[in-house]
Amino acid sequence: MPDVRLASPQGKWILLTTVLGSSMAMLDSTVVNVALPRIGRDLDADLAALQWTVNAYMLTLAGLILLGGSLGDRYGRRRVFVVGVVWFAVASLLCGIAPNAGVLIAARALQGVGGALLTPGSLALIQASFHPDDRARAVGLWSGFGGIGAAVGPFLGGWLVDGPGWRWVFLLNVPLALLCVPVAVRHVPESGDGGRHGRFDVLGAALGALSLALVTYALIEAQEGSILVPLTAVAGVAAGIAFVYVERRRPDPMMPLDIFSSRQFTAVNLVTLCVYAAFGGFFFLAALQLQVVVGYSALGAGTALLPTTALMLLFSARSGALADRIGPRIPLTAGPLLCAAGLLLMLRVGPDASYAVDVLPALLVLGLGMVTLVAPLTATVLASVDTARAGLASGINNAAARAAGLVAVAALPLLAGMGEEAYRSPGAFDEAFGRAMAICAGLLVLGAGVALATVRPLPPDCRKPECLHHGSITAPPLEGVRSKPRLSVESVEGDGLGGPGGEGRTGRLGR
């Protein structure tokens, strides 16, 4: 049984390590969007290259995050976490010194691999190290500090871009890693699940990532009119079908398809796809709109976007408590509708937009909508499957959200009619941005409709989200496995994602 106490020096070092590690990945998910215009100008990159700068990272992260958690179980959670931090830092260094867009995109893909190793590992180390009586508080502190990191990210990114330059958005990860790794090696105990001997579903992970990559390529390059575009699209669909076939046939799949036999789980993941596709598209384009059309600096754009993450950080726990009382259907219906209203208000943000009159009201409505839906969405995912699979369900939901954002960033410029040089023309970009916001609002309305028609009340003793203070805008929080309070820890699925066989054990966390 883990016995590290939170108040002890070792407990504080463990918390510092996990916060540093998760903050590296979370910061990169938010600050890069602010740097895109300057990256495009310095590297002479077109819009497709900027899309790949965002999507290369999300592609490998979404495709490998389930496998990354299983590696921690097998080979040691601290070991895999440290490998992930080092990998992420080396890839960040390559991003920072990239001489052209091609190298930057390749390095971003490598960053995503590191993120897939360290992201589940940060929560895994908390769950596997702390005494049961302290674990809930440790998770709360971890999620709170992580939320602060997410809120600070756009501001920090803008300051770096306008100051020392966009390359420091990536280079900043190197000193963070140099601090994180020695602390982890010295103070964090090793843990794992040596009793697992199932094979890793490498083929499933490869097919899933390949399908996403091919579909993304086809969407981004569609305006070129090349024969490769339809061929790639067909190959992407074929890889997706092969992924489903492999997962259905394997005895130890990465993503057991029978988990979707729960109607509630399937419905909530459909809602997730709709809302996080809209969020991914919005935050990619909004940072460009504020700089290209409105004329903000990178720092101004980053600061302007702070209200959404700040609202989530401050009020997500209260939103979860409200959903406990009234059930998830109303929040999961009202939340996307509020977000849709916020995106429609963004249509007022043009060349002469006032922040107080035009930008801020839209972001406040969007932020309130996100606050309303994120915690109930996570709670509904956790409650829709058996306790032994709650961690796996959380991981699938998190990966689905990232994949939805990935596809949205690839598809929205095509659907909105953005040319490759649109971000260099304020007028052309402004027109396309309006069409994109209407599409995103439609996705959110669709998500609200799915929630209204399919989401059912939660059982009274259902699991509650552990990450109560959540500030990420790219995906719902990863959650550990928790059951009834005041029971001892029998075993902990530290990564919260399930192991090679896809079934996490029940982690009974005192709270």
Automatic annotation (TrEMBL):
Superkingdom of this protein's organism: Bacteria
Region (Disordered): 489-511
Keyword Glycosyltransferase: no
GO biological process terms on file: response to antibiotic
Major facilitator superfamily (MFS) profile domain residues: 14-459
GO MF term set: transmembrane transporter activity
Compartments, as annotated in UniProt: Cell membrane
CDD domains registered for this protein in UniProt: MFS_MMR_MDR_like
Membrane topology: Multi-pass membrane protein
Segments crossing the lipid bilayer: 12-36, 48-68, 80-99, 105-126, 138-160, 166-188, 200-220, 226-246, 267-288, 294-317, 329-347, 359-383, 395-416, 436-455
InterPro entries: EmrB-like, MFS, MFS_dom, MFS_trans_sf
Example of a GO cellular component annotation carried by this entry: plasma membrane
Keywords from the named record: Antibiotic resistance, Cell membrane, Membrane, Transmembrane, Transmembrane helix, Transport
Coiled coil start-end: none
Gene3D superfamilies (UniProt xref): MFS general substrate transporter like domains (1.20.1250.20), Multidrug resistance protein D (1.20.1720.10)
Predominant place of localization: membrane
NCBIfam families for the chain: efflux_EmrB
Annotated protein name in UniProt: MFS transporter
Protein's organism: Streptomyces curacoi
Lineage of source species: Bacteria, Bacillati, Actinomycetota, Actinomycetes, Kitasatosporales
